[in-house]
Amino acid sequence: MSKVGHVISRELGRVKYRFPNNYGASVIQNEMSYGGDKGLYEIAVIKYHSDDDEDWSITYDTPVTDDVIGYLHPNKVDMYLLEIKAL
Asked: Which of 32, 35, 38, 57 has its CA 20 to 30 A from that of 72?
């Protein structure tokens, strides 16, 4: 995955991004994620509520998606990151 945005954290199979528009993404790949057992990724659009990088929630009401998106190859993750960055 490319360096599309500011990486907030990397932990246990998850990378969290934050963009200037206060949207971001949680990208995970582990045994609990959709496609993780196949080496694929799952992405969720997140919304930051303040300047605190831990004050966020998954949002289901964007033009990007209304749910998490699983079974993604890295190039598709990059595509979604760019869409989230442009919100």
From this structure: 57
pLDDT digits (tens, 9 = 90+) for 56-72: 999 999 999 999 999 99
Query: Three-state secondary structure along the chain?
Result: CCCCCEEEEEECCEEEEECCCCEEEEEECCCCCCCHHHCCEEEEEEEECCCCCCCEEECCCCCCCCCCEEEECHHHHHHHHHHHHCC
Residues 6 or more apart whose CB falls under 8 angstroms from that of 63 comprise 83, 87
